[in-house]
Request: fold
Amino acid sequence: MRYVVVGAGAIGGTLGAYMARGGEDVGMVDIAADHVAAINANGLTIRGYAETFSVPVQAFELNALPDNLECVILAVKAPATAAAMDAIAAKLAPEGMVVSAQNGLNELIISRMVGAERTIGCFINFSADYLEPGLIHFAGPGSFYIGELDGRITPRLLALQQAFSHWDGGSVRTTDNIWGYLWGKQGYGAMLFATAVSNATMADAIDRYRAVMIAICREVLAVARAEGVAPLGFDGYEPDLLGGDDPTAINESLDRLIAIRRRDQKTHSGIWRDLAIRKRRTEVDAHFGPILERAAAHGIAVPVLTRMVECIHAIEDGRLQLADANLDQLAALCGGTRYPVS
Reply:
């Protein structure tokens, strides 16, 4: 099968490079002409936590997307999903499929555009960053699940699992509850977005502002449950414990999560890099706009999530600077508790 990775950045670049090195037929697509040129000239380089390698792979820009696409691995930023799918939908083979290797709930958009039967959900939690044209930093391993939207374990899902198995971040698993992982990650993602409003590392921000992290996670998980989804945990993130009422269990769970973050070579989130380094808008609206809408529809109050989104917007617009004071504002919504819960 021919695989085309659309979005050759942190996630897509890492996956595509490992697949190509493993012998899969892979093409890389990106909107950045300099990235495409660098890949075609020198191959795609992965600077990993365990190894560094370069692999030759064909790359081209989105306007040169080939016809009759069999399997598209969509790895663009969430706000670019609909635009990318406009190009992909016209080129997708009748039996072709799109795998959403993205953060967020983008399977909702993809399935509306090409049908649920041509959409496969994908949950990825490894750490990676685009560094420069032709170079991706693979900073640490993490969970990797794929699943049909209706929960079936199909032959094409098993074939895709095999194609992804060249990835060196751990095993690739199939699941009958991909929505549980996707919604679960939205709770964890809200925590990481909150860490990005200061210059603290992810580990330090989670450690010092535990009440904020618990509150914002619980708000997202409440919406998920109202939508009929049972959120699932992964890689030290335990939504069942964080949503409980045992302070000792909550703090111990956060201790485990913080320990994992401290071991990761990636100290700050991609959201922080967007705000502090790249000076560009984040994915905050694409990730949490639908959740805020569903919260309103269910009558669920989400004050910390709402204020976090507002804070990200203010930083994007230059009205706020990255600072602990922004986290203090979120803490005020949680009774002023900044340090470990009790």
Summary: The first helix runs from residue 10 to 21.
